[in-house]
Amino acid sequence: MWFLYTAGHGVWIFSICPLKTRKLRFLLPSRLVMKLGAILVIVTFLLTRIRHGLAACTSGSIRLVGGTSTSEGRVEVCSSAGAWGTVCDDYWDNTDASVACRQLGYESGTAFGSAYFGQGTGSIVMDNVHCTGTESTLISCTHSTNHNCNHAEDAGVRCIGKNMTKINY
Questions:
Q1: pLDDT at 130 over 60
Q2: How is domain 62-160 classified at the architecture level of CATH?
Q3: Where in the numbering of this chain does the SRCR domain appear (predicted)?
Q4: How, if at all, do strands 72-78 and 156-160 pair?
């Protein structure tokens, strides 16, 4: 079985074969070919994952951070750039919180503002969120990507009801 992995200025090409024929080649732009052990593949892969972040996310997915349980916390949304950001509490209410909680597999939720679960870092990716209550994801609610907030206004939720355990990141 052959695999191709690109990163930086080169291309990793390696095969998984019987132990005696296991091969790994790294093709540099200068076409220099080096044969290395299979362990180098693992180390390179892990270092790349660490450099690019172990918690890579999918745009629109959400997570709760800073709560005392998995059912509560500051709401963080994965931006279209693939980075986690927070939600501003302007107009944040129980309807918005319930949409966020349903996206995570709960039945409903209660809204918290003023960084109740602690202040986040990085970008504030949603402001002036207004959900009707029928949305399946928070990102599908009406909102602004421009904001007049700081992290002292990060929105949070406490989710209630049965967790259906959806994986969102």
A1: yes
A2: Roll (3.10)
A3: 62-160
A4: antiparallel
